[in-house]
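Progress report, Aim 2. The chain analyzed during this reporting quarter is listed below.
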Amino acid sequence: MTERETSAGFHVGGETVQTYNDEHYKKLRERWGLGDDFLATFDFTKNMKGGGGKGGDLMGFTTDKLFIVKEVNPGDQKSLLKITEDYAQHLLDPHGSLLARFFLHFSRKGKDFLVMNNWMPPPRYDAVDSMEELGFDLKTNYNRFDLKGCADDKTLVALGEPVHAVHKRIFNVGMWCGDALWTPERKRYFEGKKHAREVKFHVSQATHDEISKQTKRDVAFLQKWGLMDYSLVVSYHGVPRTHLDVARSVYAGTSDGGAQPYLAASKDTLYISYVGIIDFLQDWTCAKKVAMCVKCCERNKATIPPVPY
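Predicted structure tokens for the chain:
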């Protein structure tokens, strides 16, 4: 489906925008309790920055960090128009889904944009009156991961601190001759990648079963449409069990309108987790086939056809 229509009265940042297939996205907004004015105060000038994708697409967060506005490149635009109706039906199915929730697809000043939920809403530390009086560092046990089930797994945040990507590019000969010439940032990034492949998350048995069932269902949907290179993102926060009130404060208002955040507890620790699937609009194109050949000497990478992916 490639229809473009103007949604009367739909405003983004004070502008009336042209939408794509909004009869389907409207159902998703209604399901998750969003009015047609939920982006009325979004500021394109202040909020949008480059770096929302490998090609440097624009991306920005709403003030509450619950939604992402992202520029859509031509390849993703083609995929999105193709799957819209089936995608909306998939998300509305009572079996549930971990796929990022798209709430609006629109065009502005010659560029296309997509609005989705943020599967890793940050803790609201400012909700705590005094961090010093807690008796522990609330930020220390907060982590984020981007997982593909291969050597492309990576840690995004470790123990409350961002892990910046330092890639081992083919033209950087020094990085391929052992780690003696690696910078501290490269070493930390590499250790984060290893950790991401091995990390385990504390969830209840019921949550484990729900995540497993929904992931299988989502992967089958993506395979059907020939999509690949997507990620399972996880944010994971451990808080002393004696400070349940603190956990409630820093995650107040971040609920996804469903089961998340997931909660689990050990004897001493309460674990708060968010899990979702993002970046799933990549089609298996000729460029990806060439990239797979170029990377033939690299093991366990994400550039493979949709079914084995």
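The longest helix spans residues 205-224. The chain has a mean pLDDT of 86. These observations will guide the mutagenesis work planned for the next reporting period.
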